[in-house]
């Protein structure tokens, strides 16, 4: 995915094995991974302070919804891809969301990022 080369992608995922898997997939696609963050607090700090091109967000992080992080990213016009095992995502803000279902492959992750970020596969 040449269009992803050098893109800074925030990863928010509370399951350590999934976080490592996503990080590996993104690095293989040429991305620079920010995080991964395993809590809403960590994610908010990164979302507010880091230069980001996009984000891959778990919808439910340790029993908390990702909405505050999504709101912080939306305020900075950062593209987001939501990963969930729960199906359709409805954000508190009512914003449209690009969603991929867990578990997912690298190809599905790439397609989701392309949809969220307006990139090419």
Describe what is shown at a glance.
The chain has 121 residues and is α/β, with parallel strands linked by helices. The chain is 36% helix and 25% strand. Helix 2 (40-49) runs parallel beside helix 3 (67-75).
Structure, described:
The relative contact order is 0.19. The protein has four helices and seven strands. It has helices spanning 16-28, 40-49, 67-75, 106-117; strands at 8-12, 32-37, 54-58, 60-61, 64-65, 79-84, 98-101. Helix 2 runs parallel beside helix 3. Helices cover 36% and strands 25% of the residues. It starts with 7 loop residues before the first strand and ends with a helix. A five-stranded parallel beta sheet has the order 2-1-3-6-7, sandwiched between helices. The protein is globular and about 35 Å long. The model has no long low-confidence stretch (mean pLDDT 91). By secondary structure, the chain is an alpha/beta fold.
